[in-house]
Amino acid sequence: MTFRLPRPLQSLALFLLAPFVSQAQAHVGLERGEAPRGASYKAVLKIPHGCDGSPTHTVRVEIPEGFIGVKPMPKPGWTLKTVRGPYAQSYGFYHGPISEGVKEIEWSGGELPDDYYDEFVASGFLAKELDPGVNLYFKVVQVCPKGELKWVEIPAAGVDAHSLKAPAAVLKIAAETGGVSAKAADAGSASIGSLAIEGAWTRATAEGAKVGAGYLTIRNTGTTADTLVSVTTPAAGSGEIHDMTMTDGVMRMRRMADGIEIPAGGIIEFKPGGMHLMFMDLKQPLAEGSRIPVTLMFKSGATGTVELPVRGLGANDAKKGGDEHSGHSHH
Ligand SMILES: [Cu+2]
Question: For residue 177, how far is its CA from the centre of ligand 1 (angstroms)?
């Protein structure tokens, strides 16, 4: 049995509680209110309450200009709908410019009681064309059996957003953080047929070093498997595909002479301590801050070049050490 206060007392209770409910909890907002341009961003919309006691059954959000390549996250029990449309301009994206995408998302048919809290998520990319310091406003409408809430107010210049009754959720755009620059997002990725190359990079090499290693992710967006069979770069005499295997407790390098298959819909990751591209007979040391073009050839005949940004000597993939090429005596 639930205890419910009579209406007038409910309002009194709300009034008494009001000072303890912060502005941020009371309004629809984003979990992360500031993020750098030229990088992916996960918009987590926080819905703190229903429409004056009534449960929320629909949440609709307008995607602001400059938040591109947006994909909503489905929610069990809610029906997902999107509206696509043209952007106001075209934006640079991983695999070339895009000029249209998801502009509006609607989750409906759920039930979020007034007493509960929930989050609605959309993932996308903050265009590198956005100016640092600008605000992106996510207009949100909550629909309930009784009434609706429109979080759509945008403060006029010089007006404090806190003075608004129903402000839109706001995201402040920051400058790129070191390393994740828009240029770095451009380099390190490529589209080769139905193969998406992402996050490619290599590490600077010491004076006199003869080998370097390259890392990247290959995603097969097609419906048939393909195999990476060869790797070449003008920076080195030859390129190979290597794997690391543990034999008798010792990590060893193994050349994958037949290449590596990427299943349809699959992802293959080349990373420190694991599979990697190996560049032999470097023509000169790989210098931090430069880029080296690497051409990948697949069994299907698909061939393309991706630029690998050269990171610092100590660069690693955050996790485990495994700097395989430093201890790499060739062959
Ligand atoms: Cu190797």
Answer: 31
How remote is the CA of residue 328 from the centroid of ligand 1, in Å? 7
**Domain assignment present for 143:** yes
| pLDDT (average), residues 273-284 | 94
Structure pTM?
0.50
**Ligand 1 centroid from CA 236, angstroms:** 14
Cα dist. 108→57, 58, 81 in Å? 6, 4, 8
Number of separate domains in the chain: 2
Residue 3 lies inside a defined structural domain of this protein: no
* Highest mean pLDDT (candidates 153-157, 198-202, 289-293): 198-202
CATH label of the domain that carries residue 52: 2.60.40.2230
Q: Using the mean position of ligand 1's atoms as its centre, give its distance from the Cα of residue 289 in Å.
A: 22
Calculate how far, in angstroms, residue 48's C-alpha sits from the geometric centre of ligand 1.
Answer: 52
- Ligand 1 is an ion; its neighbours by CB within 5 Å are 242, 253, 278
Give the burial class of 162: count Cβ atoms within 10 A of its Cβ; 0-12 exposed, 13-18 middle, 19 or more buried.
exposed
Say if residue 170 is in the same domain as residue 219: no
The answer on 213 and 170 residing in a single domain is no
- Cα(321) to centroid(ligand 1), Å: 15
How far is ligand 1, taken at its centre, from the CA of residue 299, in Å?
21
Residue 269 has pLDDT above 70, yes or no: yes
Question: Which residue did the predictor score with more confidence, 22 or 290?
Answer: 290
Query: How far is the centre of ligand 1, averaged over its atoms, from the C-alpha of 244 (Å)?
Result: 8
Please state, in angstroms and rounded to a whole number, the distance separating the CA atoms of residues 213 and 204.
9
Q: Is residue 323 part of a domain?
A: no
Q: Cα Rg for the chain, rounded, in angstroms?
A: 26
The range of the structural domain enclosing residue 88 comes to 25-174
- Dihedral of alpha carbons 84, 42, 276, 96, sign: positive
